[in-house]
Amino acid sequence: MKLLLFSLTICLAATLIYSSNSLGASLNKYITILTAPTFSQSSSNRSSSNIFSLPFTPPSFFRPANMSTPRPIALSFLATSQSEGAGASVRRSIGTPKLRQLSPFLMLDHFTIHPGAGFPDHPHRGQETITYLLSGAVDHEDFAGNAGTIGAGDLQFMTAGRGIMHAEMPNQGFSDNVGMQLWVDLPAKLKKCEPRYRDLRAEEIPTIKVDGGKVTVKVISGQSHGTDSVQELAYTPVWIFDITIAPGGKIQQPLPTGWNAFAYTLQGETTFGEGDGKKTVQKYYNTVFEREGDYVRAEVSPEAGESAQFVLVAGLPLDQKVVQYGPFVLNSQEEVYQAMMDYQTHSNGFERAKDWESKIGKSMVH
Asked: Model pTM?
Protein backbone atom coordinates (compact mmCIF):
# COMPACT_ATOMS: atom_id res chain seq x y z
CA MET A 1 0.00 0.00 0.00
CA LYS A 2 2.79 2.43 0.89
CA LEU A 3 4.48 1.71 -2.43
CA LEU A 4 1.24 2.41 -4.26
CA LEU A 5 0.76 5.66 -2.36
CA PHE A 6 4.34 6.68 -3.13
CA SER A 7 3.84 6.01 -6.84
CA LEU A 8 0.60 7.99 -6.85
CA THR A 9 2.33 10.86 -5.04
CA ILE A 10 5.15 10.93 -7.58
CA CYS A 11 2.66 10.84 -10.45
CA LEU A 12 0.55 13.64 -9.01
CA ALA A 13 3.58 15.74 -8.18
CA ALA A 14 5.03 15.40 -11.66
CA THR A 15 1.66 16.26 -13.22
CA LEU A 16 1.27 19.34 -11.07
CA ILE A 17 4.78 20.57 -11.72
CA TYR A 18 4.63 20.38 -15.46
CA SER A 19 1.06 21.58 -15.91
CA SER A 20 1.03 24.68 -13.74
CA ASN A 21 3.77 26.87 -12.34
CA SER A 22 1.56 27.99 -9.49
CA LEU A 23 0.63 24.46 -8.55
CA GLY A 24 4.28 23.45 -8.91
CA ALA A 25 5.23 26.21 -6.52
CA SER A 26 2.77 24.83 -3.96
CA LEU A 27 4.72 21.57 -3.93
CA ASN A 28 7.85 23.36 -2.74
CA LYS A 29 6.78 23.05 0.89
CA TYR A 30 7.10 19.27 0.63
CA ILE A 31 10.69 19.45 -0.61
CA THR A 32 13.42 19.64 2.00
CA ILE A 33 16.26 22.06 1.26
CA LEU A 34 19.10 21.27 3.59
CA THR A 35 22.08 23.33 4.64
CA ALA A 36 24.96 22.04 6.72
CA PRO A 37 24.73 22.72 10.48
CA THR A 38 27.37 25.17 11.56
CA PHE A 39 28.32 23.93 15.05
CA SER A 40 31.66 25.75 15.42
CA GLN A 41 33.18 25.10 12.00
CA SER A 42 35.42 27.77 10.55
CA SER A 43 35.72 28.67 6.88
CA SER A 44 39.22 27.20 6.83
CA ASN A 45 37.77 23.77 7.64
CA ARG A 46 35.15 23.73 4.93
CA SER A 47 35.81 21.36 2.08
CA SER A 48 36.37 22.81 -1.35
CA SER A 49 33.83 22.05 -4.04
CA ASN A 50 36.65 21.08 -6.41
CA ILE A 51 37.49 17.88 -4.50
CA PHE A 52 36.17 15.15 -6.76
CA SER A 53 39.04 12.65 -6.97
CA LEU A 54 36.94 10.02 -5.23
CA PRO A 55 37.11 7.44 -3.72
CA PHE A 56 39.77 8.92 -1.51
CA THR A 57 41.84 8.11 1.56
CA PRO A 58 43.28 11.17 3.31
CA PRO A 59 47.05 11.49 2.87
CA SER A 60 49.29 11.56 5.91
CA PHE A 61 48.98 15.29 6.46
CA PHE A 62 45.31 14.77 7.31
CA ARG A 63 46.41 12.80 10.37
CA PRO A 64 47.81 14.81 13.29
CA ALA A 65 51.36 13.89 14.28
CA ASN A 66 50.55 14.07 17.98
CA MET A 67 46.89 13.69 18.86
CA SER A 68 46.82 16.67 21.17
CA THR A 69 43.24 17.90 20.89
CA PRO A 70 40.10 15.84 21.55
CA ARG A 71 36.97 16.63 19.57
CA PRO A 72 34.34 18.32 21.76
CA ILE A 73 30.75 17.08 21.72
CA ALA A 74 28.38 19.25 19.69
CA LEU A 75 25.15 17.48 20.69
CA SER A 76 23.83 14.12 21.85
CA PHE A 77 20.26 12.89 21.59
CA LEU A 78 18.10 9.77 21.72
CA ALA A 79 16.98 8.17 18.46
CA THR A 80 13.31 7.36 19.00
CA SER A 81 11.55 4.43 17.35
CA GLN A 82 9.22 4.94 14.40
CA SER A 83 7.58 2.88 11.66
CA GLU A 84 9.19 2.90 8.23
CA GLY A 85 8.87 1.03 4.95
CA ALA A 86 6.25 -1.70 5.25
CA GLY A 87 6.08 -2.84 8.85
CA ALA A 88 9.74 -2.20 9.69
CA SER A 89 10.82 -0.33 12.81
CA VAL A 90 13.66 2.21 12.77
CA ARG A 91 15.40 4.49 15.25
CA ARG A 92 16.29 7.48 13.08
CA SER A 93 18.73 10.09 14.30
CA ILE A 94 20.14 11.87 11.25
CA GLY A 95 17.30 13.06 9.03
CA THR A 96 15.08 14.23 11.90
CA PRO A 97 14.13 17.65 13.30
CA LYS A 98 16.98 17.29 15.81
CA LEU A 99 19.55 16.81 13.05
CA ARG A 100 18.33 17.29 9.49
CA GLN A 101 21.68 16.34 8.01
CA LEU A 102 25.38 16.31 8.80
CA SER A 103 27.13 16.62 5.45
CA PRO A 104 27.80 14.27 3.77
CA PHE A 105 25.35 12.23 5.88
CA LEU A 106 21.66 12.52 5.03
CA MET A 107 20.02 9.84 7.17
CA LEU A 108 20.91 7.24 9.80
CA ASP A 109 18.48 4.43 10.66
CA HIS A 110 18.94 1.68 13.25
CA PHE A 111 16.43 -0.78 11.85
CA THR A 112 14.63 -3.94 12.91
CA ILE A 113 12.84 -6.01 10.27
CA HIS A 114 10.67 -8.99 11.14
CA PRO A 115 9.51 -11.60 8.60
CA GLY A 116 6.63 -10.25 6.54
CA ALA A 117 7.91 -6.67 6.84
CA GLY A 118 10.65 -4.83 4.98
CA PHE A 119 11.36 -2.29 2.29
CA PRO A 120 9.63 -3.40 -0.96
CA ASP A 121 10.27 -1.96 -4.42
CA HIS A 122 11.30 1.72 -4.26
CA PRO A 123 13.53 4.11 -6.26
CA HIS A 124 16.61 6.21 -5.41
CA ARG A 125 18.60 8.92 -7.16
CA GLY A 126 21.58 11.02 -6.12
CA GLN A 127 22.89 9.27 -2.99
CA GLU A 128 24.74 6.24 -1.68
CA THR A 129 23.43 3.91 1.00
CA ILE A 130 25.59 1.90 3.38
CA THR A 131 23.85 -1.02 5.11
CA TYR A 132 25.60 -2.71 8.05
CA LEU A 133 23.83 -5.82 9.27
CA LEU A 134 24.23 -6.64 12.97
CA SER A 135 22.08 -9.79 13.12
CA GLY A 136 19.97 -11.92 10.80
CA ALA A 137 20.12 -11.67 7.00
CA VAL A 138 18.68 -9.28 4.41
CA ASP A 139 18.02 -10.01 0.73
CA HIS A 140 18.30 -7.34 -1.94
CA GLU A 141 17.25 -7.20 -5.59
CA ASP A 142 17.18 -4.43 -8.20
CA PHE A 143 15.85 -3.76 -11.67
CA ALA A 144 19.27 -4.40 -13.25
CA GLY A 145 19.21 -8.04 -12.22
CA ASN A 146 21.48 -7.67 -9.20
CA ALA A 147 20.46 -9.84 -6.25
CA GLY A 148 22.05 -11.26 -3.15
CA THR A 149 22.04 -11.60 0.61
CA ILE A 150 24.10 -10.00 3.37
CA GLY A 151 24.43 -11.66 6.76
CA ALA A 152 25.47 -10.62 10.26
CA GLY A 153 28.61 -8.49 10.14
CA ASP A 154 28.38 -7.87 6.38
CA LEU A 155 27.97 -4.51 4.65
CA GLN A 156 26.47 -3.44 1.37
CA PHE A 157 27.41 -0.19 -0.35
CA MET A 158 24.84 0.90 -2.95
CA THR A 159 25.35 3.88 -5.26
CA ALA A 160 22.03 5.08 -6.66
CA GLY A 161 23.63 7.56 -9.05
CA ARG A 162 21.30 8.52 -11.90
CA GLY A 163 18.65 6.10 -10.75
CA ILE A 164 17.90 2.68 -9.36
CA MET A 165 14.85 0.76 -8.19
CA HIS A 166 15.33 -2.03 -5.69
CA ALA A 167 13.91 -3.93 -2.73
CA GLU A 168 15.41 -4.85 0.66
CA MET A 169 13.63 -7.64 2.50
CA PRO A 170 14.44 -9.88 5.47
CA ASN A 171 15.67 -13.35 4.65
CA GLN A 172 12.93 -15.79 5.61
CA GLY A 173 15.35 -17.96 7.58
CA PHE A 174 15.69 -15.43 10.41
CA SER A 175 13.22 -13.98 12.89
CA ASP A 176 15.15 -10.84 13.84
CA ASN A 177 17.06 -8.77 11.30
CA VAL A 178 18.79 -5.78 12.86
CA GLY A 179 21.21 -3.32 11.31
CA MET A 180 22.18 0.22 10.44
CA GLN A 181 21.57 2.08 7.19
CA LEU A 182 23.37 5.31 6.43
CA TRP A 183 22.51 7.57 3.50
CA VAL A 184 25.54 9.46 2.13
CA ASP A 185 25.29 12.36 -0.29
CA LEU A 186 27.06 12.11 -3.64
CA PRO A 187 29.14 15.01 -4.96
CA ALA A 188 27.17 16.96 -7.57
CA LYS A 189 29.47 15.79 -10.38
CA LEU A 190 28.74 12.15 -9.52
CA LYS A 191 24.98 12.26 -9.13
CA LYS A 192 24.52 11.05 -12.72
CA CYS A 193 26.95 8.14 -12.43
CA GLU A 194 25.81 4.61 -13.16
CA PRO A 195 24.36 2.72 -10.16
CA ARG A 196 26.52 0.03 -8.56
CA TYR A 197 26.78 -2.34 -5.60
CA ARG A 198 29.75 -3.47 -3.49
CA ASP A 199 29.47 -6.04 -0.70
CA LEU A 200 31.96 -6.24 2.16
CA ARG A 201 31.86 -9.54 4.05
CA ALA A 202 32.49 -9.79 7.78
CA GLU A 203 35.60 -11.92 7.28
CA GLU A 204 37.14 -9.20 5.07
CA ILE A 205 37.01 -6.57 7.84
CA PRO A 206 40.24 -6.12 9.83
CA THR A 207 39.73 -6.42 13.60
CA ILE A 208 42.25 -5.09 16.11
CA LYS A 209 42.66 -5.01 19.89
CA VAL A 210 43.88 -1.94 21.79
CA ASP A 211 44.27 -0.88 25.42
CA GLY A 212 45.52 -4.28 26.50
CA GLY A 213 42.68 -6.11 24.79
CA LYS A 214 39.92 -4.13 26.49
CA VAL A 215 38.91 -2.47 23.22
CA THR A 216 37.98 -4.23 19.97
CA VAL A 217 37.86 -2.21 16.76
CA LYS A 218 36.41 -3.46 13.48
CA VAL A 219 38.04 -1.22 10.88
CA ILE A 220 35.29 -1.22 8.26
CA SER A 221 36.62 1.80 6.41
CA GLY A 222 39.52 4.09 7.29
CA GLN A 223 42.56 3.78 9.50
CA SER A 224 42.90 2.84 13.17
CA HIS A 225 46.06 2.29 15.21
CA GLY A 226 48.20 1.31 12.23
CA THR A 227 45.56 -0.80 10.48
CA ASP A 228 44.01 0.17 7.13
CA SER A 229 40.71 -1.19 5.90
CA VAL A 230 39.44 -2.17 2.48
CA GLN A 231 39.18 0.93 0.31
CA GLU A 232 37.14 2.11 -2.71
CA LEU A 233 33.78 1.13 -1.27
CA ALA A 234 32.00 4.47 -1.54
CA TYR A 235 32.50 7.48 -3.80
CA THR A 236 32.19 9.94 -0.94
CA PRO A 237 35.07 9.47 1.55
CA VAL A 238 33.73 7.88 4.76
CA TRP A 239 35.45 6.19 7.71
CA ILE A 240 33.47 3.60 9.72
CA PHE A 241 34.48 1.78 12.90
CA ASP A 242 32.53 -0.70 15.03
CA ILE A 243 34.04 -0.33 18.51
CA THR A 244 33.39 -2.44 21.62
CA ILE A 245 34.87 -1.35 24.97
CA ALA A 246 34.97 -3.60 28.02
CA PRO A 247 34.60 -2.07 31.52
CA GLY A 248 37.71 -0.03 32.30
CA GLY A 249 38.72 0.29 28.65
CA LYS A 250 39.37 3.46 26.65
CA ILE A 251 40.35 4.51 23.13
CA GLN A 252 41.51 7.60 21.26
CA GLN A 253 40.52 7.25 17.61
CA PRO A 254 42.11 9.76 15.20
CA LEU A 255 39.87 11.23 12.50
CA PRO A 256 40.67 13.35 9.42
CA THR A 257 40.78 17.06 10.17
CA GLY A 258 37.62 18.95 9.29
CA TRP A 259 35.43 15.90 8.68
CA ASN A 260 32.01 15.63 10.31
CA ALA A 261 31.74 12.73 12.76
CA PHE A 262 29.24 11.00 15.03
CA ALA A 263 29.03 7.94 17.30
CA TYR A 264 25.85 5.89 17.62
CA THR A 265 25.76 3.71 20.74
CA LEU A 266 24.29 0.24 20.17
CA GLN A 267 24.61 -1.17 23.69
CA GLY A 268 25.86 -0.24 27.15
CA GLU A 269 26.96 3.20 28.33
CA THR A 270 29.80 5.08 26.66
CA THR A 271 31.60 8.15 27.97
CA PHE A 272 32.85 10.48 25.24
CA GLY A 273 35.13 13.50 25.54
CA GLU A 274 37.63 14.66 28.14
CA GLY A 275 37.66 16.88 31.22
CA ASP A 276 34.65 19.12 31.68
CA GLY A 277 33.39 18.11 28.23
CA LYS A 278 32.82 14.47 29.18
CA LYS A 279 29.36 13.05 28.60
CA THR A 280 28.06 9.54 29.29
CA VAL A 281 25.40 8.32 26.89
CA GLN A 282 23.20 5.24 26.83
CA LYS A 283 22.27 2.96 23.95
CA TYR A 284 20.35 4.45 21.03
CA TYR A 285 21.96 7.87 21.53
CA ASN A 286 23.70 9.59 18.63
CA THR A 287 26.61 11.78 19.73
CA VAL A 288 27.81 14.36 17.22
CA PHE A 289 31.28 15.89 17.49
CA GLU A 290 32.66 19.29 16.53
CA ARG A 291 34.87 19.40 13.44
CA GLU A 292 37.74 20.87 15.42
CA GLY A 293 40.05 18.42 17.13
CA ASP A 294 42.30 15.52 16.26
CA TYR A 295 40.57 12.50 17.76
CA VAL A 296 37.50 11.12 19.49
CA ARG A 297 38.01 9.76 22.99
CA ALA A 298 35.71 7.10 24.42
CA GLU A 299 35.79 5.03 27.60
CA VAL A 300 33.68 2.75 29.76
CA SER A 301 33.66 2.97 33.55
CA PRO A 302 35.45 0.14 35.41
CA GLU A 303 32.24 -0.23 37.47
CA ALA A 304 30.07 -0.76 34.39
CA GLY A 305 28.07 -3.96 34.37
CA GLU A 306 28.56 -4.59 30.64
CA SER A 307 30.65 -3.64 27.64
CA ALA A 308 29.61 -0.77 25.40
CA GLN A 309 29.38 -0.94 21.61
CA PHE A 310 29.12 1.99 19.25
CA VAL A 311 29.60 2.78 15.58
CA LEU A 312 31.92 5.73 14.95
CA VAL A 313 31.51 7.35 11.52
CA ALA A 314 33.29 10.30 9.89
CA GLY A 315 32.89 11.77 6.41
CA LEU A 316 34.19 14.53 4.17
CA PRO A 317 31.69 17.43 4.14
CA LEU A 318 30.45 18.38 0.69
CA ASP A 319 30.27 22.07 -0.13
CA GLN A 320 26.94 21.89 -1.95
CA LYS A 321 23.24 22.54 -1.55
CA VAL A 322 21.04 19.53 -0.72
CA VAL A 323 17.46 19.35 -1.96
CA GLN A 324 15.64 16.16 -0.99
CA TYR A 325 12.23 14.74 -1.80
CA GLY A 326 11.92 11.28 -0.26
CA PRO A 327 14.44 8.99 -2.00
CA PHE A 328 15.59 11.65 -4.47
CA VAL A 329 18.58 13.74 -3.28
CA LEU A 330 19.77 16.43 -5.70
CA ASN A 331 21.16 19.97 -5.65
CA SER A 332 18.19 22.02 -6.86
CA GLN A 333 14.41 21.90 -6.88
CA GLU A 334 14.44 21.67 -10.67
CA GLU A 335 16.57 18.51 -10.47
CA VAL A 336 14.16 16.99 -7.96
CA TYR A 337 11.20 17.78 -10.23
CA GLN A 338 13.07 16.16 -13.12
CA ALA A 339 13.80 13.05 -11.02
CA MET A 340 10.11 12.64 -10.23
CA MET A 341 9.19 13.01 -13.89
CA ASP A 342 11.94 10.60 -14.98
CA TYR A 343 10.71 8.00 -12.51
CA GLN A 344 7.11 8.36 -13.62
CA THR A 345 7.97 8.25 -17.34
CA HIS A 346 10.65 5.53 -17.01
CA SER A 347 13.38 7.66 -18.58
CA ASN A 348 16.89 9.02 -17.92
CA GLY A 349 18.01 6.13 -15.75
CA PHE A 350 14.63 4.65 -14.81
CA GLU A 351 13.91 2.89 -18.11
CA ARG A 352 14.14 -0.55 -16.49
CA ALA A 353 11.65 0.41 -13.78
CA LYS A 354 8.76 -0.01 -16.23
CA ASP A 355 6.71 -3.07 -15.26
CA TRP A 356 9.52 -4.28 -12.98
CA GLU A 357 8.62 -6.07 -9.75
CA SER A 358 11.08 -7.73 -7.41
CA LYS A 359 10.69 -11.36 -6.49
CA ILE A 360 11.64 -10.75 -2.87
CA GLY A 361 9.03 -8.00 -2.51
CA LYS A 362 6.32 -10.59 -3.08
CA SER A 363 7.35 -12.32 0.15
CA MET A 364 5.50 -9.70 2.18
CA VAL A 365 2.51 -10.75 4.23
CA HIS A 366 -0.58 -8.93 2.94
From this structure: 0.83
